[in-house]
Design brief:
With 666 residues, this protein is an alpha/beta fold. The protein has 18 helices and 31 strands. The chain folds into four domains: 236 residues, Spore Coat Polysaccharide Biosynthesis Protein SpsA, Chain A; 74 residues, no CATH class; 200 residues, Rossmann fold (3-Layer(aba) Sandwich); 97 residues, NAD(P)-binding Rossmann-like Domain (Rossmann fold). The strands form eight sheets. The protein has a seven-stranded mixed sheet with strand order 19-18-17-20-21-24-23, with helices on both faces. Strands 27-28-26-25-29-30-31 form a seven-stranded mixed sheet, sandwiched between helices. A five-stranded mixed sheet has the order 3-2-1-4-7, with helices on both faces.
Length: 666
C-alpha cells in the first residue's frame, strides 16, 4: 500500500547543504531567488550548515535579513553528518510538495534551476544531466562516465547521469533510506530506487559549473570508494530482490502499461514545428481556465510544452488535444459577441476604431506594391471579413477563400470579386496566387511547417505571402487559447517560414497590437537545416508568463472585493479572467459599437460612458497597453476607477489609475 503523501503548504522545499561555503552560499541563495521569481510558485529554502567553521551560517543569516520576502530556514548540524543524512532530515523538516537539493557552492545558473523546477508535476522524477560542465577536468569527466555505465549495468536502467540533483516529491525523499551518509553515490541510490518502484521520469539537459575547491583533492579516497561501494552493492541487491520477489511498491508497476504510456508521453513527445524530441512540459499550466479562439470559456486542463531544439512554446498534440479541438470547432461561432461582425481595433491614444482587416490591408498597401489585378487566396477566411475588405479597398482582383468547413460558403461566395470558396487542403486548390494571406490561422495548425510547404506550391513566381500570428511575448493571454497549437515569437515564426522554403522580406510588430506580421516570398527550396534554438525565450518566458497570469488573477480578485466590478474587454483575456473570477464579475466594458447592449457570459456589456458611477474596472490587457487605455479612459470617462494588471517582470507600471467619483459626462 502506498503511503499518503504529507500535506504541503508550499510548492517547493529547496535543500541547500553547506560545508564551509561562506564565499559562495550568498550567490546560491540569490540564484534561487531569481529562478523562483521567474517560475512564480511558492517555495521555502532549507539551508543545512553541516559543521562549517568559516562563518557560513552568518552569511545565510545576513542574506535572510536582507530578503524578508524569502522563506529561509537555517539548521546547524553540530558535527559533519554527511549530505545523504541531511538530505533525508531536510525532507522531513520541509513543507513543500516537491523536493530538490541545490548545492551551496553556486554551481547551477538561473536557467538550469528554471528548467528543472518548471517540470514539477509532469513526471515523478526529473533527472538533470550535463552535456558539458565548465571547469571539470578530463579525468573527472571520464570517471563520471565510467560510474554512470557501472550503475546502469548493475541497475538495468539507461540513465545519462546519476550525480545530478533530481527533483522529486518530498514524500519520495522521506521514504528513502540511504545505504550510507556520505557524499558519493547517494543520488544514484535514490534514483534507481524510485525508477525500480515504477516512477515516471524525464531527463533534462542543463548547464552546470564545476567548482574545484581544492586543486590537490582527488575523488579516489578511501572514504569515497567505500561509500560508492556500499551504494553499488545496494543497487545490485535491490535489483536482485525485485527480480526474485517481484515487488510492486509505489503507485505503479515498472512493467505496467500505465507506466510505459506515462513515460512515453513524458519523454517521447515531438515538436510539431521542428520534429525535435527535446520537449519540456511547463508545470502548472493545467490549473488555468482556458478560452477558445472564438472567445468562449473552456475548462482548465491541457498540456503546454517548450521545445529545447527550436525554442517554440506549443501544446502537446495528442488525442486529448485533438478531441478538445474537434469539440471547439463543432460549435465555433466567429465574432459571436458582435453578431458576426469582425472585431474593431482601437487607436490607444484617440480611441478611434477600425476593423482588423482594414488595418492590415492599409499596412499592406503602404509596405508592398500590389498590381491592379491579381489573384488572392485567403487561408482561414472565416465569414469573409478580409475578402470583403480587400474587395472594397483593392477592386479588380480575383478572390478565393478556404476554410475547414462549408459553414460560411454562401456568405463568402456572395462577396464581390470572389471566384470560389474551398473547404479542402491548400494543395488541392487549383491555380496559383499572387498574394496568399494566412491571418490568424497558422497558430491553429498542428504541422505548420508542412502546411507552409503546401502553400509554397500555390504561390506564383514573385508572389507574396503574408502570415499574421499572435506574439505571446507581447500577449501572454495567447497561451490560454485552447485551440492554438503553437505560440510564436518573431524568431520562431521567422525560422519556420524560412525552413519551409521562403525568403523572409520583413517582420512587422506594428501592423496590429500584440501580433506579428511576416512578409515572405518563394525561396530556393525547403531548408534542410534544423530550426535554430539560439533565441530560446520559451524556456524562461513560459513559466514567467504563467506566473504573471497568476498575479493577474490575484490582483483582479482583490479589486473585485470592492464590488461594482467589471472587466474591460469582451474577448480572449476578459473571457478567461471572468472564468477565473466567477460571480465576482458584474459587467464587461467595451468600445466596439457592434458589442454594446449585448451580454457576454450572462453579464451586460457597457460602453465606458455607461459604466455605473463608483465602479471598478480592471483593464484585461498586457500591462503596457493597459496603461495607455486607462490613461485615455480616465480623461474621457472619469466616473469610475480603472485598475491595471501587474507589470511584466522588469517593468514598473502603476497598478491603479484613480478617478473622481463624480463624472462631468452628460
Amino acid at each position: 500500500m502506498t503511503p499518503s503523501p504529507p500535506s504541503s503548504d508550499v510548492d517547493f522545499t529547496l535543500f541547500v547543504p553547506c560545508l564551509n561555503e561562506a564565499p559562495r552560499v550568498e550567490g546560491t541563495l540569490e540564484t534561487v531567488r531569481v529562478a523562483l521569481q521567474q517560475i512564480g510558485r511558492s517555495y521555502e529554502v532549507l539551508v543545512v550548515d553541516d559543521g562549517s567553521s568559516d562563518g557560513t551560517s552568518a552569511v545565510v543569516e545576513r542574506y535572510r535579513a536582507q530578503h524578508p520576502e524569502m522563506t529561509i530556514h537555517l539548521h546547524r548540524n553540530p558535527v559533519n553528518c554527511g549530505v545523504a543524512y541531511s538530505f533525508v532530515e531536510a525532507a522531513f523538516r520541509g513543507r513543500g510538495e516537491y523536493f530538490r537539493l541545490i548545492w551551496g557552492d553556486n554551481t547551477e545558473p538561473v536557467e538550469t534551476q528554471v528548467r528543472i523546477l518548471s517540470l514539477a508535476g509532469q513526471v515523478d522524477v526529473v533527472i538533470p544531466y550535463y552535456p558539458d560542465v565548465a571547469g571539470k577536468s578530463a579525468f573527472r569527466l571520464a570517471l563520471s562516465r565510467c560510474y554512470t555505465g557501472l550503475v546502469n549495468g548493475l541497475s538495468g536502467f539507461k540513465v545519462r547521469y546519476y550525480n545530478g540533483s533530481v527533483l522529486c516529491r518530498r514524500y519520495q525523499a522521506m521514504r528513502w533510506s540511504p545505504h550510507n551518509h556520505g557524499f558519493t553515490g547517494f543520488l544514484a541510490d535514490l534514483i534507481t530506487q524510485l525508477l525500480a518502484e515504477g516512477a515516471t521520469y524525464t531527463e533534462v539537459a542543463v548547464v552546470g559549473v564545476h567548482v574545484e575547491k581544492d586543486k590537490k583533492a582527488t575523488p579516489l579516497t578511501f572514504h569515497n570508494l567505500f561509500s560508492t561501494g556500499l551504494t553499488l552493492i545496494g543497487i545490485f541487491t535491490r535489483r536482485l530482490s525485485y527480480a526474485i520477489y517481484r515487488r510492486k511498491l509505489g503507485r505503479l508497476n515498472p512493467k505496467s502499461p500505465t507506466t510505459a504510456a506515462t513515460a512515453r508521453d513524458a519523454v517521447a513527445i515531438r515538436c510539431h514545428v521542428c520534429a525535435g524530441s527535446s520537449i519540456d512540459p511547463v508545470a502548472g499550466y493545467e490549473a488555468f481556465h482556458r478560452v477558445t479562439s472564438d472567445c468562449k470559456p473552456w475548462p482548465a486542463g491541457g498540456r503546454l510544452c517548450v521545445c529545447r531544439t527550436c525554442g517554440c512554446i506549443q501544446k502537446v498534440i495528442d488525442q486529448a488535444w485533438r478531441s478538445e479541438v474537434a469539440q471547439i470547432y463543432d460549435n465555433y461561432t466567429i465574432y459571436y459577441q458582435s453578431g458576426g461582425v469582425e472585431q474593431a481595433v482601437f487607436d490607444q491614444n484617440s480611441g478611434q476604431a477600425v476593423r482588423r482587416s482594414n488595418r492590415v490591408l492599409q499596412h499592406l498597401q503602404a509596405n508592398a506594391e500590389l498590381p491592379k489585378h491579381g489573384r488572392l487566396l485567403d487561408v482561414g477566411c472565416g465569414n469573409g471579413a478580409l475578402l470583403r475588405a480587400f474587395s472594397s479597398l483593392i477592386p479588380g482582383w480575383s478572390l478565393v477563400g478556404t476554410e475547414l468547413s462549408d459553414k460560411y460558403r454562401l456568405a463568402v461566395e456572395a462577396i464581390p470579386g470572389v471566384e470560389a470558396f474551398y473547404a479542402c487542403p491548400p494543395g488541392e486548390i487549383p491555380g496559383s496566387f499572387d498574394l496568399i494571406i494566412v491571418m490568424h490561422a497558422l497558430e491553429h495548425i498542428p504541422a505548420p511547417a508542412d502546411f507552409l510547404v503546401q502553400l509554397r506550391g500555390k504561390l506564383a513566381a514573385g508572389g507574396l505571402l503574408i502570415v499574421e500570428v499572435p506574439d505571446h511575448l507581447q500577449n501572454p493571454f495567447d497561451l490560454l487559447i485552447a485551440d492554438h497549437s503553437t505560440h510564436f515569437t518573431a524568431a520562431t515564426i521567422a525560422a519556420l517560414i524560412e525552413s519551409a522554403g521562403y525568403r523572409l522580406d520583413a517582420m512587422a510588430t506594428d501592423w496590429m497590437p500584440k501580433e506579428l506580421t511576416a512578409l515572405a516570398r518563394r525561396g530556393e527550396g525547403r531548408s534542410t537545416q534544423s530550426l535554430p534554438g539560439a533565441s530560446m525565450p520559451g524556456i524562461v518566458s513560459a513559466p514567467r508568463s504563467l506566473a504573471w497570469l497568476r498575479s493577474v488573477i490575484a490582483a483582479a480578485r482583490e479589486v473585485a472585493t470592492a464590488g461594482n466590478f467589471g472587466l474591460f474587454g469582451s474577448s480572449i483575456a476578459a473571457t478567461w479572467l471572468a472564468s477565473e473570477l466567477g460571480e465576482a464579475v458584474d459587467f464587461f466594458v467595451d468600445e466596439d459599437p457592434s458589442r454594446l447592449g449585448k451580454t457576454h457570459m450572462g453579464k451586460p456589456i457597457y460602453h465606458p460612458r455607461d459604466v455605473p458611477a463608483q465602479s471598478h474596472v480592471f483593464i484585461t490587457l498586457p500591462a503596457p497597453l493597459a496603461r495607455d487605455v486607462a490613461l485615455r479612459l480616465e480623461k474621457s470617462h472619469p466616473a469610475c476607477t480603472y485598475h491595471l494588471p501587474p507589470a511584466f517582470p522588469g517593468q514598473h507600471e502603476r497598478h491603479r489609475v484613480r478617478a473622481p467619483i463624480e463624472s462631468d459626462d452628460p
